[in-house]
Amino acid sequence: MTQDEMKKAVAQEAIQHVEIDTIIGVGTGSTANFFIDELAKIKHQIKGTVASSVASADRLKGHGIDVFELNSVDEISIYIDGADETNAYLHLVKGGGGALTREKIVAAASKKFVCIVDESKLVDYLGQFPLPVEVIPMARGYVAREIVKLGGEPVLREGFTTDNGNIILDIHGMEIMEAVKLEKQLNHITGVVTNGLFAMRPADVLLVGKPDGVDTVYSK
Ligand code: 5RP
User: Fold this and answer.
1) Are 162 and 103 in contact (CB under 8 A)?
2) pLDDT in tens, 83-134
3) Does 186 sit in the ligand 1 pocket, CB within 6 Å?
4) Tens digit of pLDDT for each residue in 174-199?
5) Measured over all CA atoms, what is the biggest interatomic distance in the chain, rounded to whole angstroms?
6) Are 16 and 38 a contacting pair, CB within 8 Å?
7) How many CB atoms lie within 10 A of CB 22?
8) Which end of the chain is more exposed for a tag (fewer CB within 10 A), N or C?
9) Is the Cβ atom of 30 under 6 angstroms away from ligand 1?
10) What is the mean pLDDT of residues 54-60?
């Protein structure tokens, strides 16, 4: 199986977790796109969706799937999204596509989070993939200096603005041994909107695409 075939396989498996007649939270990225395409096949069986990015909302609408504002829904039964890295605790690094803030909000507002990845995303320790941090533009220099104090090397994502009008600093060179602690430390830097660690609210279920099929892993 190619990497794209593994992504498609986990997207198809994720459909089994979709609850009929509910609102579905939808993530961002190439794996989430495969999920959106699968969701289109059962669109008449769901109430609609909440999207974690403008790009995903556009793709959903293109399939004729209803997309609601988060503020207009009472409950999201499940959030389905990819990740850039995951460890055995289902702690994630996300935000490679820059949608981390809305992803974190929709994940927080959802009863269950099913993460869908191909096997290349499995790591022993988070941090090989640069950790994205969304930052208010005027705070860029200050936040970068605070990140250096934590042992990271912040690099501005050139030419990129988030859906919320902010910048991204990607933190290189961190071997993340205590993901919950680092997530809190980064959140406490004034000017940080969100960081891409999903450790305080990890995935509940991880679907991993492998050459011989899909593994299902439940949080410990
Ligand atoms: C976007 C994300 C994505 O989930 C992450 O980058 C994985 O993307 P892909 O499925 O394309 O590998 O966090 O902000």
Assistant:
1) no
2) 999 999 999 999 999 999 999 999 999 999 999 999 999 999 999 999 999 9
3) no
4) 999 999 999 999 999 999 999 999 99
5) 51
6) no
7) 16
8) C
9) yes
10) 98
* Joined tokens for residue 179: 């993901």
pLDDT band of residue 220 (cuts 50, 70, 90) is: confident
Are 194 and 135 in contact by the 8 Å Cβ rule? The answer is no
Catalytic, 146? Answer no
Burial class for 70, CB neighbours closer than 10 Å (0-12, 13-18, 19+): middle
Nearest-angstrom CA–CA distance, 131 and 195? 7
Q: Which two tokens stand for residue 178?
A: 């205590």
What amino acid occupies position 12?
Q
- Distance of alpha carbon 200 from alpha carbon 91, whole angstroms: 8
Task: List the structure tokens of 49.
Answer: 């969706």
Which residue's CA is the nearest one to ligand 1's atom 1?
A: 97
